[in-house]
Amino acid sequence: MIEISNSEDFFRYQKQLKVVPFTQSEAWYAMAVAKGATARFFIDAKTNTSIAIWGVESKVPLFNSIIFRVSGEARTAELDEKTVQAFYNTLASLFKAIEIDSNTKYNVEMEVGLRRAGYKRPIGVFSCPLTLENNLVAEQSRNRRWKRSVKLAQKANLVVKEVSNPDNTHINDFVAMFQEMSKTKEMTHVVSYEEISSLLAHNSIKLYAIATPKKEVLAYRIVQVHNDYAYDVFAANSNKSRDCKGATYLLMEELFKSLKEEGVRYFDFGRIPPSNHSTDKIYEFKIGARGEKVQYNGEWANYKSLTIEILVFFYKYFKLKKQRY
């Protein structure tokens, strides 16, 4: 394993790889920097690179513990357990605590390699390791609710467009709408102007909007494209979009068509949280597109101290009130 000292060289090596989830993209890194984060970069080899990751060292309040957190991994289409084991074993020697939340398709070689390197599933899982993958090329029949909602939005003459050159107005509008949505849904996550501006500055990021005939924007969607694969990154829905029935359905339907025309074959609909509580509504919405249910590699942890791992779990669950999955 090799640590790369700067982002430019790291992303040059990353370009060799087939699988690059949006959380490992250069655009997502730019957003992390806008938050004030300092990243560290690692690859398994400079020649025939198979794995490349960047992550951020985070300090957990109260415990004075530093955790190296990694969201996903960029990798070749095919992996072998020995490559995975060697890479993550060396990574574990550099940090007292590592948390991985992988949003790439489940790979058994990945799991075997991680386990042999000493990683385990964490005490508490706080992100659902499931998604929907939509094949934009193959014909996929939507469910009745999806079709009915699209028709309602079309009858209201709602218009979907890609915002090719987002300006300050679009960014401010997105941030305000996201905050409005967060408050309505009692979400803890918020985004800043600087974060969204940094994200949208990259060519791999696309912004879509749906508006009324009077050009009042009801909702936005941000997606990231890597080769023939697209990822659902952020949604921002206004309270008014609820009054315009079918707005988000038509937004996604037209977004799928636009991506397909640009040569994108697959769309990762982001995490789906099937459950018996309020987050199940997200699952009900996304399943209407009839994509294939896919499992991510999910969460992994390597703590040198079990006591610290337990304390971090309590902090996340009781202090931050994170939802377990």
UniProtKB/TrEMBL annotation:
MF terms in GO: acyltransferase activity
The organism's taxonomic lineage, starting at the top: Bacteria, Pseudomonadati, Bacteroidota, Flavobacteriia, Flavobacteriales
Top-rank EC class of the record's enzyme: transferase
UniProt keyword Manganese, yes or no: no
The protein, known as: GNAT family N-acetyltransferase
SUPFAM superfamilies in the cross-refs: Acyl-CoA N-acyltransferases (Nat)
E.C. no: 2.3.1.-
Alphabetical UniProt keywords: Acyltransferase, Transferase
Parts of the chain that traverse the membrane: none
Residue ranges annotated for the BioF2-like acetyltransferase domain, each copy included: 193-271
Species of the source: Winogradskyella marincola
One matching Pfam family: Acetyltransf_6
